[in-house]
Known about the structure:
Elements: H1 17-32, E1 56-57, E2 97-100, E3 104-108, E4 113-124, E5 127-137, E6 142-146, E7 148-149, E8 155-156, E9 160-163, E10 166-168, E11 172-176, E12 182-191, E13 194-203, E14 209-217, E15 227-237, E16 241-244, E17 247-251, E18 254-260, E19 263-266, E20 274-276, E21 279-283, E22 287-297, E23 305-312, E24 317-327, E25 331-344, E26 353-366, E27 374-383, H2 387-390, E28 404-415, E29 421-432, E30 437-452, E31 470-484, E32 498-513, E33 517-537, E34 540-541, E35 549-550, E36 553-573, E37 576-581, E38 588-604, E39 611-615, E40 623-627, E41 642-657, E42 668-683, E43 694-702, E44 707-716, E45 718-720, E46 726-730, E47 740-753, H3 754-757, H4 794-800, E48 812-823, E49 830-842, E50 848-857, E51 862-863, E52 867-874, E53 877-884, E54 891-898, E55 907-912
Antiparallel strand pairs: 1-2, 2-4, 3-4, 4-5, 5-6, 5-9, 6-11, 7-8, 9-10, 11-12, 12-13, 13-14, 14-15, 15-16, 15-17, 16-19, 17-18, 20-22, 21-22, 22-23, 23-24, 24-25, 25-26, 26-27, 27-28, 28-29, 29-30, 30-31, 31-32, 32-33, 33-36, 34-35, 36-38, 37-38, 38-41, 39-40, 41-42, 42-43, 43-44, 44-47, ...
Amino acid sequence: MYYKEYRITPLQTKRFYIPIQLILLLVSFFAFSQELPTRKKLPFEPEKEKEQKGDTLKANVNEVIKIGTRKRVDSIKNDSIKGDTLPKKQPLLLDQVKYKSKDYVKISQRKKQILLYDEAELYYQDTELKSGIIILDYEKNEVYAGRLKDSAGVYSQAPYFKQAESVVEPDSIRFNFNTEKALIWNSRTEQNGTQIYGELTKKENDSVIFIQNAKFTTSKDIDNPEYYFLARKIKLVPNKKIVSGVTNMYIADVPTPIGFPFAYFPLTDDRASGFIFPTFGENNSRGYFFQNGGYYFAVSDYFDLALLGDYYTNGSYAFRVESNYALRYRFRGNLSMRFEAVINSQRGFPDYSKSNIYNIRWSHNQDAKANPNSRFSASVNLGSSSFYQASINQLNTPNFLNNTLNSSVSYSKTFPNYPSVNVSVTATHSQNTNTESINLTLPTLQASVERIYPFAPKEGTKKGILKNINFQYNLRGENRINTTDSLFFTKEMFKDAKVGVRHSIPLNTNFKVFNYISVSLGGNYDEVWALQTTKRSDAFINPTDQTEQTASVKDTINGFDSFRTYNFSASVGTTLYGTFERGKDRKIQAIRHTLRPSISYSYNPAFDQYYDEYIIDAENNTVQEYTRFEDGLFGTPGRNFASSIGINLANTVEAKIRPKDSTQTEAKKVMLLNSLNFSTNYNIAADSLAWSPVRVSGSTQLFNNKLNVNFGANLDPYSIDNEGVRINKFNINNGGSLFRLTSANLNFNYSFSSKSLEGKGDSGTDNTRSGGRDDDLFGRAQDFSDRQTFGDDDDEDEEKEDVEAYRAKIPWDLRLAYTVTYLNSNRQNKISNNSLMFSGNVELTPQWKVGVSSGYDFKNKGFTFTQMRFERDLKSWRINFDWVPFSSRASWYFFIGIKASILRDVKWEQRSEPDRRL
């Protein structure tokens, strides 16, 4: 048994430890049971005012300034309250704010504002603001900008506000970043070339802007415009439209009676559909009219369509359909179809007449990058022969002198494998507007195989007569139609169509003799297929009337037939050079003369097997030979044997000119005579008149290739009898000269301008789109209200801003064309044609231009078609006046209108039709 011992100790009070324990208990209680929440960050941490430029206020999701609304920062990440329905606020700033100013930047925590003073700039998202003073209230999310006022009371540093692509330059602005609404005082903005000034502007959002007492104009100077439209209230949708209430037009701050109860102006950089405002006028024989009015369809980025029309109160009318199309790197072109129903005078009057005329123009060009092995192109100009002469639209006035209409539509395809083959199909049209005859090929098929050298080595050069032997194969097939204007587009035009095919195989070779003489030998084989031939019957006496003689009968035989021909040729030629040195110290240092003489021989056998005979009178006294292929497309087989020698001499003359610049060492080469050719033939097989006339032709270019000179003449060695028929007797043996000049012609073409004299390129004109010449010698076809004729002149105006109203150098251009023709084939000894045409334009000042197109006929002693042109540039406006003073197309046309395309329909036109005479 164990016993435990207990010891009894007296009790004691621990006075020192009790206070310590109580203090520790209280500290632990306040440290854990009553924990303070995390201190919430202030909306804005105060910073020192900074004066340096480029100061940037940065923000992120954990910092202060975020635009939108404020967001409460919870101190406890895991909130015990579930399902809180209160919406969470967005950060105060949504993007980085950058700012700077020249004077100082003041940040007020109490007012929650940032103040920028003197040349202040603020950038936020897509907003850019520059002004004398800027105040940013980041609690209301608003910004205010205004001008600075100096001690003299002068304002400066007006605000510049840009949001996206929209720019406003007001006196002051107030803008809210949340609602994107703004109040703008005395704003200035530009929309698609239109300057807009408003006393008070209210910006609802990016899409709608309301302006009170707004001025809008296309003038460059908004503070002092030449003209403007004043609207009490307008609604502006940027890049789309302007809709206004009561609007008045002011010219030089003077109100005009021109006003509108409301107005609509489209604003777009792209093409937009819309009405084309017509031109109004009066004609003596057709009454009142409007011209060139209609509607424009901006169908897509690839093509457009314009429907235009004319109408006269006497019943005459016209329609035009015009379209432009383009596909980048593929093709581009334009199409124009015009129809006019022309009525002269009134029904019941003796001079009443009615006619329908039309014209079709089509141009198509394929880009060279589209397909290297195939190509399609078109150039069409066809219609009524009298279209340009009888048209009632003045746009066709300069084109009424056109005598021919030509068209061509072709497609070609190349097969590049050796030997390569090229195939083309072409439809052509040629129309004489005087005779009204039309020639068509529907279609023409051509095929050719590239030149083949059967004996040439695979590598190395081809030398010698054998290695240079080569041949080709060419095919040409036509379906040719000859018709008249009245039968065009009718089934009768196809009745007399002719079809034929020609196969040709040329065989050639060439070689050199003595290293200086070139010799070529060749032959040609032709085979012609025809689907129709001709048969002639003998003449006979009518059995019912023994005295009446009946002519021979010509019948057309349908069916396949063909003939074959061949010929041989040879030529020998060389090149001779002669140089005349004059010394390097002379202006003309040397003259070089190049001669290329050549002699050729051709052999053409007679193909009598293709000829027959028929009797042309009833007494069987006269027999005539004919071939059944006489109406064929590719000629007839030769009936007469021909063995002829051809002589040709070609000359060129050039010079070396000392350069004007002493630093240049090489002399400049100048062509004095581009060509001077003499050619004739001698027929060995002919029993008389063996020599053919000598043909002389030449050309040259003078004055830096600005003056083109072409000349030609025919010299006949034989004389003529009293009836003008050539006889087998040389003219020199008949008391005359060695040669008899039977005809000669001379042409001059001179085109130069002030730009060309300064070494710059000329700016030519183009009237081909309306069916005229590619120059303005016959005048210009212009519609001053047509946007395709005159584009916006913004670039030109910018260049003219730095040019004085009067200057020493006056831009000008001049075109001259002179032609003279001499005839003496039958001793008539006369000038058949002798006329001079000229066209010039002078820019008297940057605002004044005048031009004239005319000519003089020295034979008939009278002026040719004359057109005078006047143009006045009034900065935002344009004045044009065209005048044809005489001829059957005597008329005038006056136009004044705004140049900018958005207000192109604000115009006034007056014209005199060609029926009025002076």
